[in-house]
# Entry
Amino acid sequence: MTYLSVYTDGEHPETVLETEDIAEIAAVLKELDVVLRQWAVIEGHGGSQEEILDAYRGQVDRVVAEEGYTLVDVAQLHPDGSPEWPEKARAAREKFLSEHTHDDDEVRYFVSGSGIFYLHVGGRVYAVLCEAGDLLTVPRDTTHWFDMGTEPDFTAIRFFHDDDGWVGRFTGNPVAERIPDFDSIAARRASRN
Ligand SMILES: [Fe+2]
# Structure
């Protein structure tokens, strides 16, 4: 289930909305030109990139044809209990944890697990907790950041128009530091249910 929290972006952020109503979430995001779609989750897919893309081949091909993506891949991170894991998790989380933009849309389909996209638009921060089945399209140049939590656990299909690589342009705005992080929002959401 997708979960949206909206905050003011001042020194002392206030929560202005919390909802799990998918129609409401899609309507709020539409105002930002952010598109949230849901695909039926295919259970029992394999773990490799090829197996995952094969499982979703029909949906992936349709979206590629509609939106003209030139590159599709799979990003995944799962706790593995190795001695290297804590540092690997920390480094991965750190990468896009500060506010930035991209020259391309950021398009992610969550095959499993979760992550939060924070969209900073018009004096508000929209924290979209995505889970399995969610396909989120964040338009190019939208100021945003992404938090996978302190124990990252997700598999996501990524779609790109530009296969030259994925570059973040960091804004230097420290807003992300004062908005509740993934762990806080996940705990808050769990306590509501
Ligand atoms: Fe990004």
The pocket of fe (ii) ion is lined by residues 96, 100, 102, 106, 144, 146, 168 (CB under 6 Å). The mean pLDDT is 94. The radius of gyration is 16 Å. The chain has five helices and eleven strands.
